[in-house]
Amino acid sequence: MKVAVVGATGLVGTRMLEVLAERNFPVTELYPVASAKSVGRKITFQGKEYSVVSADDAIAARPDLALFSAGGSTSAELAPKFAAVGCRVVDNSSQWRMDPTKKLVVPEINGDVLEESDYIIANPNCSTIQMLLPLAPLHKAFRIKRIVVSTYQSVTGTGYKAVDQMKAERDGKKWGEYPAVYPYPIDQNILPHIDSFLETGYTKEEMKMVNETHKILRDDTIGVSPTTVRVPVQGGHSESVNLEFEKDFTLEQVRSLMENMPGVIVQDDPQNNIYPMPLFAWGKNEVFVGRIRRDPSVKSGLNFWCVADNLRKGAATNAVQIAELLIEKGFLPK
Predict the structure, then answer these.
(1) Could you give phi then psi for residue 107, rounded to 5 degrees?
(2) Residue 84 burial class via C-beta count within 10 angstroms: exposed 0-12, middle 13-18, buried 19 and up
(3) Which of 35, 105, 123, 197 is the most exposed place for a label (fewest CB within 10 A)?
(4) How far apart are CA 150 and CA 225, in angstroms?
(5) Pairing of strands 88-91, 120-122
(6) What φ, ψ does residue 237 adopt, rounded to 5°?
(7) Could you tell me which of 104, 136, 73, 319 has the C-alpha nearest to residue 212?
(8) Model confidence at 334, in pLDDT bands (50, 70, 90)?
(9) Is 147 exposed, middle or buried (0-12, 13-18, 19+ CB in 10 A)?
(10) Which CATH superfamily is domain 127-310 in?
């Protein structure tokens, strides 16, 4: 299979290459694509060296699959060009997520929506994916009325420049002495601000969680109230999730449903200090769930804590899993 990775030199792009190799994805020809300044740069994939190529050169090669992680404007321009030559595109940006003509997919939850006519497929937001994976079976069993979620998102969600900013601050550099991507220092700080603010007071990141939840679960009646926060952690997002259900439940039912959900690992033994933490989720493909407990302030309420590597299941791994599903459905060559 001819595979292009657009944005191959970025944080998510490099993880996409790692995941393709780890999962033995059937790549026979690889076309790493990046910006003009990176063309010619060498990367290694499965022990072989490849040169970064331009998007035009990759399109001319007519790849079967293109994994995109290069930003919304790049996806808007290039994804249709790849699709026009018969290439299946899985896009990690927000460009196509809420387009009614495009599918927004977490394979374990709604992979059934994919059809042969789908040539541009959207990968959801990282914080949405990790929340919905443990939450989806609960919604099916008990019907969620309302979600209140607070996220604690690592700097890798912003990219290499954010990691560099935090490292510069930890090295003792003063504000103004280094390039900054955040409006304030991030080390020793917490920013209640991810993406730009809207007139409502919510950010675009928060509204992604609202709108994508409705689309993926195919239920616009669920109330979603998010607060997204950037924390000085290098890898892994964490979330505090509060749910109110229409039907009552037992904690045993909740744990069983989560434990049986593919891609979810329950770590829930607080008496022995066992609970999910980003330090130990880094580099793993699963969503880790713990601190599972009733909310005594509301009927049929539940709290849980979940953690995932935002560059893996929150981005690269989910994209590769979508591609694997396309193979399974016969829409891509094996």
Answers:
(1) -50, -40
(2) exposed
(3) 197
(4) 9
(5) parallel
(6) -100, 145
(7) 104
(8) confident
(9) buried
(10) Dihydrodipicolinate Reductase; domain 2 (3.30.360.10)
Q: How far is CA 147 from the centre of its chain?
A: 19
Query: To which residue do tokens 């769930």 refer?
Result: 289
**Element (DSSP H or E) covering residue 56:** helix 55-60
Strand, helix or coil for residue 272:
helix
Residue 66: strand pairing partners: 4, 89
Residue 173 gets which letter from DSSP?
P
Amino acid in position 4 = A
User: Rounded distance, CA 102 to CA 273, Å?
Assistant: 43
Q: Are 334 and 327 in contact (CB under 8 A)?
A: yes
Residue 252 token pair = 């045993």
User: Model pTM?
Assistant: 0.96
Tokens for 190, please give them: 């917490």
The amino acid occupying position 51 is S
Burial tier of 334 (Cβ tally within 10 Å: 0-12, 13-18, 19+): exposed
Q: Evaluate whether 80 touches 103 at the Cβ level (below 8 Å).
A: no
Residue with token string 């929340």: 131
Predicted pLDDT at 263: 98
Alpha-carbon distance of 196 to 233, in angstroms, equals: 21
Nearest-angstrom CA–CA distance, 126 and 313: 7
- Residue found under tokens 């891509």: 332
Give residue-wise pLDDT tens across range 197-230. 999 999 999 999 999 999 999 999 999 999 999 9
DSSP output for 218-249: T-TT-EEEEEEEE-S-SS-EEEEEEEEESS--
Q: Would you name the residues annotated as active-site residues?
A: 126, 237
| C-beta separation of 38 from 21 below 8 A | no
Q: Does domain 2-123+315-328 have CATH number 3.40.50.720?
A: yes
